[in-house]
Amino acid sequence: MRRILHIDMDAFYASVEQRDRPELRGRPVAVGGRPESRAVVCAASYEARQFGVRSAIPMSRAVRLCPDLVVVPTDFAKYRAVSQQVFALFRSVTPLVEPLSLDEAYLDVTDNAWGEALGVTVAKRLKQAIRDETGLTASAGVAPNKFLAKIASGWRKPDGLTVIAPERMEGFLQQLPIDALWGVGPVTAGRLRAHGIEKLVDVRAASPATLHAAVGSQAGWLTALAWGRDDRRVVPDRAAKSHGAERTYSEDLRDVALMRAHLTHLAGICGDWLTRKQLRARTVTLKVRYDDFTTVTRSQSVPGGLSDTPTIVAHAHELLARTDAGARPVRLLGVSAHNLVDPSVAFLAGDGRLPFDEAGDAGEATAPAMS
After folding, report:
1. Interval 37-57: pLDDT, tens
2. How far apart are CA 225 and CA 312, in angstroms?
3. Going by C-beta distance under 8 Å and a sequence separation of 6 or more, which residues neighbour residue 4?
4. Distance (Å, rounded) from C-alpha 258 to C-alpha 201?
5. Percent of the chain at pLDDT exceeding 90
6. What do you get for the CA distance between the two ends of the chain, in Å?
7. Residue 240 CB neighbour total at 10 angstroms
8. How far apart are CA 4 and CA 299, in angstroms?
9. Virtual CA dihedral for 83, 182, 225, 236, nearest 10 degrees?
């Protein structure tokens, strides 16, 4: 039986700002761009969340929800530095660390440098080490698999620790509402509830046709989760072939200007990652999922490669214009960079041809999918 941890820093960007600026402690804080610039919230402190301020909502809406909100500009260099401290702690315990973002990761601690037999003991020691090293708190979930560990880490935030031992799995599964699952948003949850599926375990009794109507090709995966089955292993860092950021919105987007603002944020994540990894990308891809779950992608090749955020933003906006966004409500947006190369060879095409021999291309794929 594996011992899997999911560790998630609490309100990471906002907590770093509150740590470094004592005058912000105990106050509602949102990290992101100015409200007048159509920016979105990148992170919100727990004080701000009490007013309904959440990441990805427009900053203009955030200040209406919380007039006393303190808006702080992002400082990704600082967040990366703190993230590196945290991940160094993870890797001092086990080489099996799978990053999900700057502030969360899976760890397989079945075998660990501390020789601890219990995953909960490792989690407690790591949480304390993070606090001692960075002055920040993290929440942890401990379980036999990745699915349950991720659910558990969010169970008692902030500074939480939830353990799902094998003998407690069934009792924990019985508690989970259907929308507790990552990726099951309001629309999917509504479709499942329309068929009497209120809790995750209700999926077990549903017919394959019912599940397929609600979640399409993800029906089998949802059934496995309903039984607590997840055989995915923790995969350490590997050479990346692509990198992207996407977000599912709790309310469908209808305003194209707001979509462009969200894409600017997502493209910024890609650009920041490419700069940090000292890579260039030959292809930028936009992903759009409409309210009926139809998903389309649009891609544009850049012969010499790119890594700067403004250029990625420009391509993302151009690709958005080639979709039905605006005419159709959008529930998910994503931007990704593909065909990654080292800058020293970025001027060559994949087979050694010079870039002026390589024409740009555009691709599209359409499929119903679960968010």
Report:
1. 777 898 999 999 999 999 888
2. 36
3. 106, 107, 108, 109, 119, 142, 143, 144, 145, 146, 148, 149, 234
4. 37
5. 58
6. 30
7. 12
8. 36
9. -20
Can you give the length of the chain in residues?
371
> What kind and span of H or E run contains 8?
strand 4-9
- In 234-342, alpha helices (H): 256-277, 309-320
Q: Which two tokens stand for residue 12?
A: 């990471």
Q: What is the DSSP string of 70-87?
A: EEE---HHHHHHHHHHHH
Q: Are 136 and 127 in contact (CB under 8 A)?
A: no
CA–CA separation, 184 and 200 (whole Å): 11
* Beta carbons of 362 and 298 less than 8 angstroms apart: yes
- What's the mean pLDDT in 75-92? 94
Strands (E), 307-366: 330-341
Q: Could you report the per-residue pLDDT of 219-259, keeping only the tens digit for each?
A: 888 899 899 999 999 988 766 678 888 888 878 899 999 99
Q: What are phi and psi of 192, to 5 degrees?
A: -65, -40
Residues sharing a CB contact under 8 Å with residue 86, sequence separation 6 or more, in sequence order: 9, 103, 130, 133, 134, 138
Q: What is the pLDDT of residue 342?
A: 65
pLDDT of 241: 75
State the Cα–Cα distance between residues 77 and 55, nearest whole angstrom. 19
SS3 state at 252: strand
C-alpha 79, offset from chain centre? 16
Question: How is residue 40 written in tokens?
Answer: 């979105």
Q: Which amino acid is at 27?
A: R
Predicted model pTM: 0.68
Residue 69's closest CA among 31, 39, 36? 31
**Cα distance between residue 368 and residue 293, in whole Å:** 5
In the predicted structure, residue 355 carries a pLDDT above the cut 50: no
Residue 366: name the closest of 307, 288, 303 by CA. Answer: 288
pLDDT, tens digit (0-9, with 9 covering 90-100), for 282-321: 999 999 999 887 889 999 988 778 888 899 999 999 999 9
**Where in the sequence numbering do the catalytic residues fall?**
104
DSSP 144-180: SSHHHHHHHHTTT-SS-EEE--GGGHHHHHHH-BGGG
